[in-house]
Write a structure and sequence with these properties.
350 residues, alpha+beta, Ribosomal Protein S8, Chain: A, domain 1, 7-stranded mixed sheet, 11 strands
């Protein structure tokens, strides 16, 4: 089913408010979820609303959190989330990081005790829109086997980078340190589709194509992805004094409890280095050179990170709206807050 941006955002906002989220926090959350769906990142869009609604309704997300911002140095600070909505905390913390970077040249802002914050590319794009370069990374619950291991220890632990060009374009790179994010598995389940056999393994460590048989995800590029997911956890967990590694709370274990996740934003002002205009011009030149490269057979062109997402967004609106799975649309339009699908389930909501 195709929905306009306004309709999709409005349905998600209304559902989150019905679950108990304040209008202000529901507005921010729905905006970021829509940002994901319109770019084709359906794993981090409307498919998540029922889970969030169930957690909100059961008290696992503080609806009136006592956010606390503390500057710990000229270029450092912490943002206490009080188990509140991760989307809101991450966005507010990025606003603080942007302000600090513009004032002092750089900012390193740690966010403590929050719930899931969705597509972290949204937050780095916030900085890039202000002519700044940014990095963000965060923890997630254990669902990936370490290289050479048999038991899940780390999460998908995503990383995002963003940088502005001089013509309005923004490079946004957002990746999980697993071959695929768990949300991709969830999206395939909702569509009743198989997954590639390179995404995940079953209880015996064997590759699977049935998304319902997934026991653990696998790191990208073996030991390289494993190293990345460990260091993301060190910088966004250990460094911030929140649970780390296998101690990170499960997304579905008990929806009445806060997740206490950590996230880190790093923002840099190019004016303190090569200069803002020179930086943006070089980024733009890079994008043009990549687009101008002869593509290999089977590819339309060489894209820079984030370009395909913008094209998908534009195409979606040209085709009449954002394509959302019928079952999800029916839920969003229903009177139900949630259907008790997630509480006290395993890491894969089984």
């Amino acid at each position: 089913m195709k929905l306009s941006r306004e309709e999709l955002k409005g349905l998600m906002k209304g559902k989150l408010m019905k679950a108990g989220l304040t209008e202000e926090h529901a507005e921010t959350t729905a905006e970021i979820l829509t940002w994901s769906d319109e770019r084709g990142y359906h794993s981090h869009g409307s498919v998540r609303v029922e889970y969030y609604s169930e957690r909100i309704a059961k008290g696992g997300i503080t609806v009136h959190p006592k956010f606390e911002w503390k500057e710990t140095g000229p270029c450092t600070g912490t943002f206490e989330g009080d188990d509140g909505c991760g989307y809101v905390a991450a966005a507010l913390a990025m606003e603080k990081a942007i302000e600090m970077a513009k004032k002092n040249g750089a900012a390193i802002v740690g966010i403590r005790n929050i719930s899931h914050s969705g597509s972290i590319g949204y937050y780095t794009e916030m900085a890039a829109k202000q002519d700044l370069a940014a990095i963000s990374f965060c923890q997630s619950d254990p669902m990936a086997v370490p290289y050479g291991g048999t038991e899940p220890y780390y999460g998908t632990n995503p990383i995002s980078f963003a940088a502005p060009a001089d013509d309005g374009r923004i490079v946004v790179f957002d990746m999980a340190t697993t071959v695929q994010a768990w949300g991709k598995i969830l999206d395939k389940r909702s569509r009743h589709e198989n997954i590639p056999d390179t995404w995940a393994v079953d209880e015996k460590g064997k590759p699977v194509t049935d998304p319902n048989l997934v026991n653990a995800l696998v790191p990208i590029a073996g030991p390289k992805g494993y190293g990345l997911m460990m260091m993301v956890d060190v910088f966004s967990g250990v460094l911030l004094g929140v649970p780390f590694g296998k101690h990170v709370s499960s997304m579905y274990h008990d929806l009445s409890e806060g997740r206490k996740l950590g996230q880190m934003h790093i923002v840099i002002d190019p004016a303190r280095f090569v200069g803002t205009e020179a930086f943006k011009k070089a980024v733009s030149m890079t994008c043009d050179e990549l687009n101008g490269m002869t593509p290999v057979e089977g590819f339309k062109k060489v894209y820079y990170p984030g370009q395909g997402a913008v094209e998908r967004k534009n195409q979606a609106y040209a085709d009449g709206g954002i394509e959302i799975v019928d079952e999800i649309c029916e839920y969003l339009k229903s009177d139900a807050v949630h259907f008790d699908r997630y509480d006290h389930k395993n890491r894969f909501a089984d």
